[in-house]
Design goal:
heterohexamer; A: mainly alpha; two-stranded antiparallel sheet; 15 helices; globular; B: alpha+beta; binds adenosine-5'-diphosphate
Chain lengths: 455, 118, 455, 455, 118, 118
């Protein structure tokens, strides 16, 4: 720690230097003047208010996810597992403003894979550090400052890699994990996001209201691939591994549900009818999912577990995500109600196949995501010309399937490469001995619950 | 003096303590433990049935004078059994009682020791 | 589990079938076209934004309540108790969109009990599945999509039965409980809600800004009745029963306070002056309640407990609920400050009377609710013509009392019938042995805190 | 408890009496009529919605802080520590509406210390009980009811004293603490708030977007002074004192981050560009702070702790608070990234100096606050005429420093007086024996976790 | 060799450990338990006073060679008493010390056993 | 009959239990404890290294018939050591095993006692 005392000294220096650079850079910012200029579109304070709120709600999902995953881990791994979500806030939080946003919503590159369609990835040097949109309004959503949109989208970019973590929880090294999500976010999330939302070649075709394809399917498959490559936790499945704190899991699920309102309703990038419809179907699907899961458990085991209930909530929420704004209540109820048994089966199958997708990221996010993305076509509020099984409908069905397949293959393949790469270089799998001792102590030098010891 | 260590099912704790008090054995030390015997206790995990390797139990420690031992043990056995009406026996997992010899007991508050301190 | 593998197969079938039906139903939806039509009233994005936020905040109260109740239960019942709140989200979440809303806010039925007044219950087949309001705006609140109002109200419908659960916590069977709240919501909540808010015969007379009568009084009395019928928990009051986790209780109370802002301020169904006034009085009353409760404890026991503080918060919040938008700061402070000692006394009395209202649902929600509903008349911002004790005032006082009495008797009587019914048919009271073993294990096959065991 | 049974009787009496008084007072309220009058400025529902939301989000920070501090305390003090935050809600919640707001935002008093500048404290008898603004709009922010502004500001007044508590956690008597924060809020917070925001002599000069100077610096120095005066906890630093529940700490940090969006973005008292910019820089700085803290730990200890991560988040958030709306992304990243090592050093130094600022209130809030308040000048979005090191800039730099110094000296000195006073009169330091037994039991008659005992 | 089991008040843990270390008895095993003796410890629950049936205690286990027994016991008694100045005695609830005979001790790290392993 | 009390490192619990089961010693009671010996286990607290006074350990209790004692002890020792390849010894902190004499054992479910009840 000798280097510490010097820090303060370095500061003034650093500050001045950095201050000057930033200012310098600021100068040549072409759009900066706009910030002041009244020329630009008027702001709709209402829509802005809701988008700000949504952004906050989605941020709330990160601690929510941390609790959800953390509570399911074993006592010795609770902090390590929660860290997986929190560190995503730190890493992606930084990369997103630096270049992530530019890669997702910048001018589309490599266009022309399909005539008249966009390309594979976005880019705009001016968008680095969100400089170009620092003062602009209405580019990405009517009446809202572009920064709000950037922040809202940023939360999605943060939560997606955090979701993956559940698949290889309790057996991954922290350093490797950090490198992994950093790369994953740039190499997988950004392209997918651009392709489907940001002007890429599927934008406008595949319906993905709030990220079933971009977020849940990609995270699900990534988790599966990583879990398979890393292999099972030490002692799995021989020794039973108990959730260390189910109350935490329930709270986490509650926060996720709450945040999901921002997630789905916010994706309308408005504060009106679509927003209301998205929120309604989200609520309906979540409730239906929960109900149908506990019913299944009640039938099969004559018991309804709390973990089952919240798994049902999640299944419902994931299934409705791509559909939120586009299906009415009945559709939402059905999608939610059917997603639960589907995920239930997936989880049971996992058990039979014997691989260790620790917290069922694929079993829930992957499966429900795929189901939602394709199932939504059956319940569209505005059925394409010709109705169910009409031509237009079939095209739509194909678009959906295409989106799913592309997301599955692209995310699957690249994830595999990444996992191998990171494991060989930085090391991803945690040694058996460290697994025994627990991540909290070996990786973070902490213990989650001081309270269960005397001091 | 003997130290009676009883490992019982958590759900019987109240009954056992009541029974002991009625047999005026007031002083006891209780602690959580998890045990492995023949007990079965199945949990659900996302629709799968899981059999934990260790089952929660409660551990009682009672220091008594020799004359009390038999009575104490009987009291515990009766109170701790999940009596099965058909066979007038308890269930598996009802637990164990272990009796250990004590060399001396000291009451901290007064420092006195031996039988009077129990 | 043989039936499981077949599930996937059933799906495509199910989807197609259901898809077709929904579409078919969709056709004959008279109002559907409206969805697109520009004819309808303009949306106020600001008000919509706040109502969406309020909806989300009230949803946050469910996990809040789960934590509050769960933390007060014993370790072996923590999950079972939390499930009572969560399963309400699942059950009522579904029934509400199917028929609950229609029963509360549909065209009033059996009108004419009082000349010129509405009836006992609402109904509108078109409102089932919220079909009729899927695309409409402004019917229930100026400038907001009707779905938002439906969702906001839905949260109230969810939390009310969840409140009751506290009264018979730790001794009720899960299955019976589910059936109970399902019926309770349809047979008690919906009529009351309609009578006082939805156009029923008291609508417009009794002041109930955010649900003192509809929600807290009805839940309070229902809890009392159920608790009396089911009898005390095994071992009560002989053996002391400790809250398993007071930190959870505090967090729960915090979330409840936060959510209550949506609950009360949202009830103005606007985003303006009334909203601000409601939020202000809510804040003032909660603080005053908390303060006065700990002062009492300090005087009597020379100690101030954290549970006391949060109980005071709750007392204050409940008392202000019916009054929120209609009393100014001084009134709010007084109502909050007086509610605490009143509830305090009620809790002590319960102790003396020896019945087992486990978490004091009546002692807090019932008592404070009644006090608020009647007490508010003394502090109305817009005093009726003639001021305090004037004629108009006395009429108002009578209206309030009437509302309270109706809610007490109706909810009380019907609850009793329900409890008996459910107990005889599905079984409501948990057997002594299962109580000993704990709800978590016997009913849900889980343990709340894996962490306190070794694995 | 003989006095209890009488309570109910006292009520009707009390109600009538109080009812009459309030009404009487209400009469002479000059502004009340305004409430109805249409003359007043129109309400912007969007801005109002966001300000209501912000108010709610800042309220969420109180339980967040309670969890954060509570989790870091030892098991026997967890409730006592959480109570420090909760009781602030109760006490300041009441005083604020009675007189706090009047003292902060009332007509400025003792003006003329500086020509053309405001005075030291505000006052307006009409503002007591927020009477004068009960129905007014737009006085403090365009298009929003004044009550909303009052409530938003009230939350700041609540959280500031709660922050201090961390410095002398685990060794302070509850009664003394209550008196202390009551006086502190009136004698220190209100004047500072008025001076810098409410029209006092620094208003308009020093940039303090969301309260770096008013809140974090004053709380930080107050904590330091109090900690030094009260001395270390019994056994510190000899026996290691473990956080009782780090999962609680993480959740708390999560809620703080979420709430901080309301805290900073809300401080724009609008729902537009500034709001978006504030939210963006908040997000960026928090992420940067977290990242840089764990990098430092990784370098020095080859481990990254979860407490480190959240400390970094806090450091970043505090540093950006005074700057939120006024610096762009690069500046935010830099401020956050530099705040972490600075606080890190401060914490290490504390260890070396050996004083016991239990939860590093000064080390984090004080240090990061000072750094932010001064550092922001280097990254201003709208550089003063002449740019960095220009004359205008230097003046600004001086204003900032002045604000910091005034806040440090004023808060420091008065706090010292207060602490001595309260300690001598009511008693502030907890006796060693009570410290051994734990605050929860001795002061509150409770135990945080029933679950770790058998019953 | 003897196993000394001491049940003390939680707030005395630090003092007792310090005292033991000073009497260079470094090795000890500590665990939570809840006990019932004559202790009174009243809790508040919504304004009512509640007397828990079981009171939190701490349990120390110390294996020592015979020569150390007396000294160890004395150390604990002195450190664990909530001394009441008037009567130079401790309080109720201060706890108990139970001395058990040990047949053998094994140090896992080395496998050695007997006195040297204590 | 003897009561074997073993204090081991938490991370070895699974291995030890497996080893015991393989040596068909199925019945065991486990509980958490914190211990103080020569173990070192450093924590981080806001960038400072902290050495806790007590380290988490796990406590096993196994009642066995005399004939089993030696075998049981050997099994535990082997399984509980963090073997250091160079010196074929375990680490500090690996723990202790204490053997206590038992006077009697009673199986609650049946009431039978003595060797058959173990
Ligand atoms: N020999 C033993 N040594 C240690 N603990 C034991 C022993 N036998 C039983 N126990 C404890 O008693 C609990 C209940 O055991 P149980 O299954 O009733 O024993 P049994 O199978 O002999 O009836 C077990 O979980 C274990 O904790
Ligand atoms: N005979 C006993 N057997 C087991 N534990 C005991 C016994 N006597 C005392 N204890 C333990 O010691 C703790 C303190 O007991 P205490 O009330 O001081 O005993 P006494 O009343 O004999 O002074 C009790 O809570 C209990 O846990
Ligand atoms: N004499 C003893 N009495 C009680 N517990 C002991 C004793 N010796 C060791 N232990 C327990 O065993 C644990 C591991 O001890 P360890 O450091 O391996 O002992 P040693 O230093 O003799 O190898 C300690 O943390 C403590 O809990």
């Amino acid at each position: 720690m000798p280097r510490l005392p010097f820090l303060p000294l370095l500061f003034t220096a650093a500050l001045v230097a950095l201050g000057l650079t930033t200012q310098a850079l600021g100068q040549q910012n072409p759009l900066a003047p706009l910030a002041a200029a009244p020329a630009q579109p008027a702001i709709d304070t209402g829509t802005t208010a809701w988008m700000l709120t949504s952004t906050t709600l989605v941020l709330l999902m990160i601690p929510g996810l941390a609790l959800f995953y953390g509570g399911l881990a074993r006592t010795k791994n609770v902090l390590g597992t929660m860290m997986h979500s929190f560190v995503a806030m730190a890493i992606i939080g930084v990369t997103w403003v630096i270049c992530g946003f530019a890669m997702c919503f910048g001018r589309t590159q490599f266009a022309g894979i399909r005539e008249g369609k966009g390309g594979l990835i976005g880019w705009d040097t001016d968008l680095m550090f969100l400089k170009a949109i620092d003062g602009t309004v209405g580019t990405y959503g009517e009446g809202i400052p572009d920064l709000v949109f950037a922040m809202f989208q940023g939360k999605f970019a943060i939560i997606t890699p955090a979701l993956i973590a559940g698949a290889f929880a309790e057996r991954v090294r922290f350093r490797g994990y950090c490198v992994f999500i950093f790369l994953w976010s740039l190499l997988i999330y950004c392209p997918l996001c651009h392709i489907i939302w940001g002007g890429g070649f599927l934008t406008g075709d595949a319906i993905d209201f709030a990220g079933g394809t971009v977020i849940h399917i990609s995270a699900g498959i990534a988790g599966l691939v990583a879990a398979l490559y890393l292999g099972a936790r030490r002692g799995y499945p021989r020794s039973a591994m108990h959730p260390n704190n189910l109350t935490m899991v329930l709270l986490g699920a509650g926060l996720l549900w709450v945040g999901w309102f921002g997630f789905n309703a916010g994706s309308s990038v408005s504060s009106g009818l679509k927003t209301a419809q998205a929120l309604t179907s989200t609520q309906a699907a979540a409730a239906a999912g929960a109900l149908s899961w506990i019913l299944i458990e009640a039938i099969i085991h004559r018991k309804a577990s709390s973990l089952g209930l919240v798994s049902g909530i999640l299944a419902g929420l994931v299934a409705i995500t791509p559909a939120a704004g586009d299906v009415a209540v009945p559709g939402a109820l059905i999608l939610g109600a059917l997603a639960a048994p589907l995920c239930y089966t997936a989880v049971i199958l996992k058990g039979k196949l014997g691989y260790d997708d620790t917290l069922d990221v694929f079993g829930i996010h992957g499966v429900a995501g795929i189901f939602g993305a394709i199932g939504l076509t059956f319940f569209l509020r505005d059925m394409p010309q010709g109705g169910l099984f009409g031509e237009a409908w079939l095209t739509q069905l194909w678009y959906q399937t295409e989106g799913v397949l592309i997301s599955l293959t692209y995310a699957g393949v690249v994830t595999f490469i990444l996992v191998v790469l990171v494991d060989k270089t930085f090391g991803l799998r945690l040694s058996d001995r460290d697994q025994e001792a627990g991540m909290d102590h070996t990786l973070h030098g902490e213990h989650g619950y001081g309270l269960i010891n005397i001091q | 003096m003997k130290l009676i260590v009883a490992i019982i099912q958590p759900d019987k704790l109240d009954e056992v303590r009541q029974a002991l008090i009625d047999a005026n054995i007031g002083r006891v030390t209780v602690s959580r433990c998890t045990g492995h015997g023949r007990t079965q206790d199945i949990d659900l995990y996302r629709g799968q049935e899981v059999t934990p390797n260790l089952v929660p139990k409660v551990r009682l420690e009672i220091a008594v004078n020799d004359s009390f031992v038999e009575n104490t043990v009987k009291t515990i056995v009766n109170a701790a059994q999940h009596l099965d009406p058909t066979t007038s026996k308890g269930e598996r997992g009802d637990g164990k009682i272990i009796v250990l010899p004590i060399e001396d007991i000291i009451r901290i508050s007064t420092g006195e020791h031996g039988n009077s301190a129990v």
